[in-house]
Design brief:
Helix content is about 40%, strand content about 25%. The protein is α/β, with parallel strands linked by helices. Pfam families: DegV (PF02645).
């Protein structure tokens, strides 16, 4: 059976996976003031970060249309998986579900196998789920077996992030100017996580190096058996920092696999320049 894995543009594929026809991203649209940016292969991260830096306003994102997801379902694969941003963060999941329904209305329910997944994560977490599906196909599992296992893996996966700048949080109203000022003055870096797709604060540390180390410590402790887990590190314009996180993880556990990827536009909006997103599962 042939398969294809679609994700919104927060799937954050590696350069290698972008060349693999089994993986494809469906772009969101980004807006900075009056500038509209399609989050596809033309996305220029450095230019976008400069545009965000120069704007006093928070960038906005718009999810793909149901028609875009319907078109994805019309591919020639027998089994189709669509991995969407956490439904607590975006309307992408609902748009994907509607796209599946539109396809089934036109072509008949059961005409092909389609699973829409609320990743309950973003960025590194979405990519980790996509790689898990690929692994399961290589094991020879069926669509129904993979569907059951990937949702279990999704529920057990842990997502973390550390941001270098509090500007994205300040601009979108998550922090008052005063809080942002004191946190910046004291060089406080929050260590954030996700509880079934809802962003929560786990800890904080003085300085980015200590924040990242604390994130890796929490991730490895929660992983239980890291030798059975894959870690995916997504970075926003900071490959050297991603390598530091990889080294911190390797010091703490013998992970089955560690993958590094650069973020596309959506994660760049929310994690900000220098941000790191980590998923373990």
């Amino acid at each position: 059976m042939s398969y294809k894995i679609f994700g919104d543009s927060c799937l954050d594929l590696t350069e290698e996976l972008k060349k693999d026809p089994r993986f494809e991203m469906i772009p969101l649209t980004l807006q900075v003031d009056d500038h509209m940016v399609i989050d596809d292969e033309t996305f220029d991260q450095k230019a976008f970060l400069q545009m965000v830096k120069e704007s006093p306003n928070c960038p906005k994102t718009a999810c793909p249309s149901p028609e875009a997801f319907k078109k994805a379902c019309e591919c020639d694969a027998d089994d189709v998986y669509i991995i969407a941003l956490s439904s607590h963060l975006s309307g992408t999941y609902n748009s994907a579900v509607l796209g599946k329904e539109l396809y089934e209305e036109e072509h008949g329910k059961g005409s092909k196998n389609i699973l829409v997944i609320d990743s309950e994560s973003a960025s590194a977490g979405e990519l980790n789920e996509a790689l898990a599906i690929r692994d399961m196909y290589e094991e020879g599992l069926t669509f129904s077996e993979i569907s059951e296992r990937i949702l279990k893996m999704r529920d057990e996966q842990q997502t973390y992030f550390v941001i270098d700048t509090l500007e994205p949080l300040r601009k979108n109203g998550r922090l008052t100017g005063l809080q942002a000022f004191f946190a910046t003055a004291l060089n406080i870096k929050p260590v954030m996580g996700a509880d079934h797709g809802v962003i929560i604060k786990l800890d904080q540390a003085r300085g980015i190096a200590k924040g990242l180390a604390r994130m890796c410590e929490l991730a490895t402790k929660r992983a239980g058996k890291p030798e059975e887990k894959r870690a995916v590190i997504a970075h926003v314009n900071c490959p050297e920092r991603a390598l530091q996180v990889k080294a911190e993880l390797e010091k703490r556990g013998n992970y089955r696999d560690i993958v590094i990827t650069n973020t596309a536009g959506v994660a760049t909006v929310y994690a900000g320049d220098g941000g790191i997103v980590l998923a373990v599962g």
